[in-house]
Amino acid sequence: MVSFAPTSEETLEDQRLYTQARLTNVACLDCLAQVGVKKNSEHHTSIQWNAEALEHCAEFRRMDSEPGGRHVYQGCSRLRSSIERAVADGQIEIGALDGY
């Protein structure tokens, strides 16, 4: 259930900028799931998953099959390593110069 559904054009644009602006596609070096990534700082990483990427992620499938399933806050360590590699290779720019 949506707790907040933006209706004004300005709010919709803010939502688009926050969730989609400056995303760089990164493929997991293990399962090849592709997600959108942006790094606003060295310690802040935003990852936008889609249904296809979730289906491809072997680590998430493993966690989902465990008793109690995967906790929402748990990330994929293999994807995290892939993102770190993309940063090191210069594929992902660090910094929120546009405020998003």
In whole angstroms, the N-to-C terminal distance is 25 Å
Over the alpha carbons, how many angstroms does the gyration radius reach?
A: 15 Å
Order of helices and strands: HEEEHHH
Q: Within the largest sheet, what's the order of strands?
A: 1-2-3
Structural class: alpha+beta
| Shape field | globular
- β-strand amount: 5-15%
> What's the total number of strands?
3
Mean pLDDT: 84
List the helices and strands and how they pair.
Blueprint: H1 9-20, E1 24-27, E2 34-39, E3 45-48, H2 51-56, H3 58-65, H4 77-88
Antiparallel strand pairs: 1-2, 2-3
Structure description:
- The protein is α+β, with helices and mostly antiparallel strands and 100 residues long.
- The chain has a domain at 24-88.
- It is built from four helices and three strands.
- It has helices at 9-20, 51-56, 58-65, 77-88; strands at residues 24-27, 34-39, 45-48.
- The chain has a three-stranded antiparallel sheet with strand order 1-2-3, with helices on one face.
- The chain is globular and about 40 Å long.
- The two termini are 25 Å apart.
Q: In summary, what is this structure?
A:
This protein is an alpha+beta fold and 100 residues long. It has helices at residues 9-20, 51-56, 58-65, 77-88; strands spanning 24-27, 34-39, 45-48. It has a domain at 24-88.
